[in-house]
Amino acid sequence: MSKTFLALWMAMLSGLFMSCDDVTSENRSLVNILLVDAPGDFDEVWIEVLGVEILPAGSRGSTENANWIRIPYRAASNTVKISDLVNDERLLLGRTEIQSGLVSKIRLLLGREMYLIQDGIRIDLAADLDLADKLEMDIAVDALPGFSYDIFLDMDLAGSIVPAANGSFLLDPKLRAFDPAGAATIRGRILPGNVAPHVYVRSTTDTLSTLTAGNGGFYLQGITPNTYQVFIEAPAGYLDTAFDVAVSGDTLLTLPSINLRPQLP
To answer: What does the pLDDT read at residue 24?
Structure first.
């Protein structure tokens, strides 16, 4: 083999490897993690949020050689008034660049400080014994190179804080993770706006719930396309309300204002 031919061959191989490295370096996606819609039956709920961890694809595009990636929540204070995440409010927990491929799991990282305030009294929350397990969820986001993806965490505070012994309360998280792509959202307003009824969206396979904000507004997202019953559990003095809706993917369904009927004496 001549020296000239060998030099050309080595240059071609070098170019090939450089090309592969360039493709690999561009095989990245951006992931944003948001916490949404977490109202409860208390004046305030405060929880220390440390961040999240996600399990993306490894370098071979599968979970075989994948490692958890930690995304810290960076704020002036990590103790978050999580009860404010009502209606369409959301909290950006963090974002990071990852190897493109399937994101299969996510876990919320909480600190030790967690409490509620009711009638001006602070009550510390005890953590459920299986808290760490209940903060880890499956998710399926196929992250393509060069694109940005949102992953939402939805904590149902009304179902997550349960009474315990001696007047104390336990944090037993009811948490779900969802990719908003292809999902539906239902938005509405219930009058009077200050009565804070429970709102349930039910199908034969799933139930989502929320409370209204101070103006009566509610916002439920991450809904799988289907036919649902919207059930409004009214407070004392009003009648419950129920009706059916059908939702399709990638749609926002805005309901007409719903006036609760007073309960006759």
So the answer is: 45
Q: What is the pTM of this model?
A: 0.80
Of 65, 54, 59, 63, the C-alpha closest to 24 is 59
Rounded (5°) CA angle 149-199-107: 35
Residue 77 three-state SS: coil
Domain 26-181 has CATH 2.60.40: yes
- For residues 153 and 37, give the distance between their C-alpha atoms in angstroms, rounded to a whole number: 9
- For 68-100, strand residue ranges (E) read 69-72, 79-81, 90-99
Helix, strand or coil for residue 205? coil
Closest CA to 222 of 203, 255, 249, 256: 249
Tell me the domain boundaries of the chain: 26-181, 182-265
CATH architecture of 182-265: Sandwich (2.60)
Asked if residues 220 and 210 have their Cβ atoms less than 8 Å apart, the reply is yes
Q: What is the pLDDT of residues 45-84, one digit of tens each?
A: 999 999 999 998 765 555 567 889 999 999 999 999 998 8
Residue 10 pLDDT exceeds 60: no
Contact, 106 vs 55, CB < 8 A?
A: yes
Kindly report, residue by residue over 222-261, the tens digit of the pLDDT: 999 999 999 999 999 999 999 999 999 999 999 999 999 9
Rounded-to-integer distance, Cα 2 and Cα 4, Å = 5
